[in-house]
Amino acid sequence: MNNDKKIINDIEAIPSLVQSKRQIDRYNLDIDAQAILVASRLMAAGAQLGHASEIHFSRFGLSTGRYRLLADLEDYEGEELPSQLAEHLGVTRATVTGLIDILERDGLVSRRLSSEDGRQRSVLLTEEGAKKLREMAPEHFAWLEAMVGLLSIDERSVFLDLLGRVTQGISALTDERSLKPKGNISNE
Amino acid sequence: MNNDKKIINDIEAIPSLVQSKRQIDRYNLDIDAQAILVASRLMAAGAQLGHASEIHFSRFGLSTGRYRLLADLEDYEGEELPSQLAEHLGVTRATVTGLIDILERDGLVSRRLSSEDGRQRSVLLTEEGAKKLREMAPEHFAWLEAMVGLLSIDERSVFLDLLGRVTQGISALTDERSLKPKGNISNE
DNA sequence: AAATTATAATTAGGAACCTAACTATATAGG
DNA sequence: CCTATATAGTTAGGTTCCTAATTATAATTT
């Protein structure tokens, strides 16, 4: 019986400190092995979470992106422009078009032409879409809460703080390459 | 000039505490808003990191997966079976086949038939593959280190601990559905 | 020994997100 | 006015990873 297929994040897939050390030693680099371990673990956790999330939402006939779009729409009184959605979700407008296509096909949102600007199309949350969100809310939020269930309230605050700074670190790395910084990363 | 396209993780894309509270209040759920915030932020961070990682590796003509395969190969004396690689990387064998295809095309690995078992094909790190790893090591590890550069040594330990428990939480959620646990998650 | 079953790798096709090119509309400059 | 340029959304095609089916070889069962 091959139920191993389900368990992707095997113990083998988790990078260890000795592994990080070995890699650094091989090239005689002046790098903190633990820093490498933290970064590697975070990458592994990110991939794992992304995968788990898709499985979670698929039980409601949604994907992570499509749920997030619906939730954002709900947060903005049930009507938004695709470009706003793209900005809120942190994805491209092309991606939003695809998300809307499927949600519209499934009757969870609808498109409407804007009267003010002929280029714009409003996206509206349908009654069915609102119902879907209402129905999945308890289970969904319980799922999210369970994710951090092994952390105490205090630990959650600490984690949030540390994660925020790591996120900042990542942003700095990706922005670095654009030689014209927008000026909002001020700490030298 | 539209260099905004590069900066995907806009300030708007980061979920806030008030947003989490609003969502929970809407359905009168007995859920800790901060827990939702932590979970949401982690998901956002995971996506951001995944994206940043692809950009990082693309500068060396690699993807995250292909780099990880090369690095794992190096860790195992330059020779492994595809099935071992799949397990170590936490991806399916089908994915590994695809990764090897491109790495082989680019001359970074080679395939060899196993003498012992006719079903197996060994994957070998070529000299060119080893050279690639050697060349990118300084920049790559510096990149990883910079990611957690805003954290002190002590904070890295704390972060590692908390992240580990969140990871456990996620694993528990995904395994939950398979009614026959493998019994290797022993700490009750 | 032959037939069944398991395993290793691959192939085929799908989902999510991307970039770049395109269409339609709006705005600005001469 | 009317051409040039910017913007909103979409379309086309690529990448990464997945699941399910397929092929080839090994192990097991009768």
UniProtKB/TrEMBL annotation, chains A, B:
PROSITE patterns: HTH_MARR_1 (PS01117), HTH_MARR_2 (PS50995)
Coiled coil (UniProt feature): none
Keywords annotated in UniProt: DNA-binding, Transcription, Transcription regulation
Database matches in Gene3D superfamilies: Winged helix-like DNA-binding domain superfamily/Winged helix DNA-binding domain
Annotated ranges, domain HTH marR-type: 35-168
Regions that span the bilayer: none
Protein name: MarR family transcriptional regulator
